[in-house]
C-alpha cells in the first residue's frame, strides 16, 4: 500500500466510530423507552433527553466539529501529494484520540480524562495543518 492510499484508512476508522456511536445512541434510546425513563416523542426535538443517551448524542455532535477539519486535511494532503508516512501516523494518532475521547465521554464522562484526549487530537490536527501549509509554501 502506498502512503497515498494509507491516508484514507484513518478516515475510514473515524467513520466507523461515527457509525458505532449512532448504533449506541439507538440502543440507549430504545433502552430508555423500554425502561419507561423516556417517551419516544422526547427524541423528536431532543428535549429532555435522559443522560444515558444525551452523552452519546453530545459525543456524536462532537464528531462533526473538529473531525471535519481532519477529513478536509486528509483530503487536502492527498490532493497535493503531501500525505507521507509522518502524516499518516499523525492521522492515526488523531483517530485514536477520538476513540479515547468518545469512550471516556459515553462512559464515566470525567472531564479530567476527556480533556487530555481532546488536546492530543487538537494538537495532532494542528500539526497536520501546519505541515500542509509548509508543503504549500514550498511548492
TrEMBL record:
Gene3D superfamilies found in the cross-reference section: Membrane associated eicosanoid/glutathione metabolism-like domain
Any Pfam family matching the protein: MAPEG
Domain of life per record: Bacteria
Chief localisation class: membrane
Annotated transmembrane regions: 6-27, 118-138
Any GO CC annotation of this UniProt entry: membrane
Subcellular location, record wording: Membrane
Keyword set, alphabetical order: Membrane, Transmembrane, Transmembrane helix
UniProt signal peptide: none
InterPro entries: MAPEG-like_dom_sf, Membr-assoc_MAPEG
Protein's UniProt name: MAPEG family protein
Provenance organism: Metarhizobium album
Amino acid at each position: 500500500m502506498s502512503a497515498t492510499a494509507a491516508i484514507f484508512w484513518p478516515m475510514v476508522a473515524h467513520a466507523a466510530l461515527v457509525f458505532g456511536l449512532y448504533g449506541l445512541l439507538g440502543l440507549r434510546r430504545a433502552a430508555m423507552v423500554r425502561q419507561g425513563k423516556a417517551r419516544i416523542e422526547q427524541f423528536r426535538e431532543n428535549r429532555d433527553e435522559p443522560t444515558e443517551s444525551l452523552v452519546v448524542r453530545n459525543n456524536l455532535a462532537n464528531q462533526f466539529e473538529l473531525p471535519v477539519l481532519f477529513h478536509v486535511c486528509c483530503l487536502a494532503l492527498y490532493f497535493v501529494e503531501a500525505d507521507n508516512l509522518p502524516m499518516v501516523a499523525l492521522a492515526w494518532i488523531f483517530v485514536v484520540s477520538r476513540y479515547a475521547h468518545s469512550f471516556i465521554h459515553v462512559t464515566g464522562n470525567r472531564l479530567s480524562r476527556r480533556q487530555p484526549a481532546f488536546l492530543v487530537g487538537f494538537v495532532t490536527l494542528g500539526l497536520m495543518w501546519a505541515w500542509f501549509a509548509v508543503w504549500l509554501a514550498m511548492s
